[in-house]
From TrEMBL:
<protein>
    <submittedName>
        <fullName>LuxR C-terminal-related transcriptional regulator</fullName>
    </submittedName>
</protein>
<dbReference type="InterPro" id="IPR016032">
    <property type="entry name" value="Sig_transdc_resp-reg_C-effctor"/>
</dbReference>
<keyword id="KW-0805">Transcription regulation</keyword>
<keyword id="KW-0812">Transmembrane</keyword>
<keyword id="KW-0804">Transcription</keyword>
<keyword id="KW-1133">Transmembrane helix</keyword>
<feature type="transmembrane region" description="Helical">
    <location>
        <begin position="217"/>
        <end position="235"/>
    </location>
</feature>
<feature type="transmembrane region" description="Helical">
    <location>
        <begin position="368"/>
        <end position="386"/>
    </location>
</feature>
<feature type="domain" description="HTH luxR-type">
    <location>
        <begin position="421"/>
        <end position="486"/>
    </location>
</feature>
<keyword id="KW-0472">Membrane</keyword>
<feature type="transmembrane region" description="Helical">
    <location>
        <begin position="122"/>
        <end position="142"/>
    </location>
</feature>
<feature type="transmembrane region" description="Helical">
    <location>
        <begin position="178"/>
        <end position="196"/>
    </location>
</feature>
<dbReference type="Pfam" id="PF00196">
    <property type="entry name" value="GerE"/>
</dbReference>
<keyword id="KW-0238">DNA-binding</keyword>
<feature type="transmembrane region" description="Helical">
    <location>
        <begin position="154"/>
        <end position="172"/>
    </location>
</feature>
<feature type="transmembrane region" description="Helical">
    <location>
        <begin position="29"/>
        <end position="55"/>
    </location>
</feature>
<dbReference type="InterPro" id="IPR036388">
    <property type="entry name" value="WH-like_DNA-bd_sf"/>
</dbReference>
Length: 493
């Protein structure tokens, strides 16, 4: 192991990186494989065809939107219940083909009502059911892909995809209707092809596990997202009256861009807790200060709510993807639960907002009461989030007996738990714990640098710090401490 002087030098490199290391980190971050940005394309499709659309579809009604949402919920729940039988999706053609065909048919039916208005009486409902089914499959496919990535890459790629989706929407606004139809029809197919290509870029050991890990629901994370979805639903009706929809709103784009730049330039030193600490006051402003005091214009309130909800969407993607990444949990199962709960609570928020508005007896006090209720829910959910140490937590979930079909998967789960235990015992930082897990997975220093988007030499400094805190000198001593069999280590190094 390096001496104390070299260790101190490595620490200073991490805490105060020079301009060259920042530049190299930014270059690595901006070199995103384009296929991973295909997630933004399905977000653009949702806004154009069903949510906050800038196209005046004769078949687009509130009831059609509800059909779309509830079909998405039903499909997500069905996939959750059948996850052990139908998952994973990456090595099967059916989810890609069914999802692509369903979204294409849905697009055709919605645009057809523009040219043949007599179709509007039924085409919207068919399009909503078919589209809700297809978009649920699309979301689960992309969730499965992101569940194979480490948290830094998830944050980087997902935030960049949000910005890309908004840019696509800005460009599409300039198309005449026939061209808009053609280009919108292409979005689902291109997105699914990108996802398929993304899976092929992953090394085989990093692709979704084909074995089954039985995991209880991470209820803290799900409840956290449900509270924010409810608050978003309360304001959703007034957020689409302007020029932007939910996926192109300035608040959503600004937050996504800030997270991307933070990860790109800070790398492993980026503090993910800033996401929810930034989102909570924005939510309070949007839901409480506006209806109570009326000092903030509606556009500002919408900006705050869109920004807060986007921040929480990024965070919930990080949490759920990291559970899949660390423990081999089925992304189809976990994200099916999360997406279903999210849509249900968003719908409940819309229903409550509409109900309060329809009863004149409530007057302004009704809006205030509903807003206070939403704020209490959001604050409570955020306090639950603060009770967890970091992204490596299980968020209220545990493994269940008899929950895996593979000894290798059991070993992976035990190893992740052991790394977390050692990190807490020896007071490793969150970044050192991530490096420790990668070392335990027999990753080389070069691979660790690429996966964590850190500058050349920084991973070596982390390794030195870990060795110093654990009072060990070699990789074999680390394996012994973690309980990794010597033959196993030799076969995988």
């Amino acid at each position: 192991m390096a001496d104390c002087a070299s260790t101190t030098e490595g620490a200073s490199q991490e805490t105060a990186p020079d301009r060259g290391s920042l530049l190299r980190r930014a270059q690595a971050a901006f070199a995103i494989p384009l296929v991973f940005l295909g997630l933004g394309l399905y977000r653009a499709w949702i806004e154009i065809v069903f949510v906050g659309t800038f196209v005046s579809f004769p078949s687009a009604t509130v009831t059609v939107r509800d059909f779309f949402d509830w079909t998405m919920v039903a499909t997500a729940i069905a996939c959750t219940l059948l996850a052990r039988r139908i998952g994973p999706f990456f090595n099967k053609r059916a989810p890609f083909v069914l999802g692509g065909v369903a979204l294409t048919v849905s697009t055709v039916l919605m645009f057809a009502s523009c040219w043949v208005p007599t179709l509007a009486s039924w085409s919207g409902y068919v399009a909503a059911v078919v589209g809700g089914f297809g978009i649920a499959l699309m979301i689960l496919v992309w969730s499965e892909l992101y569940g194979c990535l480490n948290p830094l890459r998830v944050a980087l790629y997902y935030s960049a995809s949000i910005v890309v989706g908004a840019l696509v929407l800005y460009v599409y606004r300039g198309f005449m209707l026939p061209w808009l139809f053609v280009m919108t029809t292409l979005l689902p197919a291109v997105s699914l092809v990108a996802a398929r290509r993304g899976f092929s870029l992953l090394p085989p050991p990093e692709r979704p596990a084909t074995t089954w890990t039985q995991f209880s629901v991470p209820w803290k994370a799900v409840l956290f997202m449900a509270a924010y979805a409810f608050g978003y639903g309360l304001m959703e009706g007034g957020m689409y009256v302007g020029s932007f929809g939910p996926h192109s709103a300035p608040g959503a784009v600004c937050v996504a861009a800030l997270v991307f730049l933070g990860v790109a330039f800070r790398g492993g030193r980026f503090d993910f807790s800033l996401i929810y600490r930034f989102a909570l006051p924005l939510t309070v402003i949007a839901l409480f200060l506006v209806p109570v005091f009326g000092h903030v214009p509606g556009q500002a309130a919408n900006f705050c709510m869109a920004a807060a909800y986007t921040a929480q969407s990024i965070l919930i993607m990080l949490i759920c993807a990291n559970i899949c990444y660390r423990y081999g949990v089925s992304a189809v199962w976990l994200f099916g639960i999360e997406r279903g709960v999210r849509q249900v609570f968003m719908w409940l928020g819309r229903v409550m907002a509409d109900g309060v508005e329809s009863f004149e007896a409530f007057d302004a006090m009704g809006d205030v009461a509903v807003s206070v209720l939403a704020v209490v829910a959001v604050v409570f959910a955020t306090m639950l989030l603060l009770s967890e140490r970091d992204l490596s937590s299980r968020w209220g979930a545990n493994f269940l007996a008899g929950g895996t079909d593979s000894a290798d998967m059991i070993r992976k789960q035990e190893l992740a738990d052991r790394c977390t235990e050692i990190a807490r015992t020896y007071k490793l930082s969150a970044r050192e714990e991530e490096v420790l897990l990668l070392l335990a997975q027999h990753k080389t220093v070069g691979i660790i640098e690429r996966e964590l988007l850190i500058a050349n030499g920084t991973a070596k400094a982390h390794v030195r710090h870990i060795y110093q805190k654990l009072d060990i000198h070699t990789r074999q001593e680390l394996f012994d401490l973690l309980g990794i069999d010597q033959r196993e280590a030799a076969s995988q190094d």
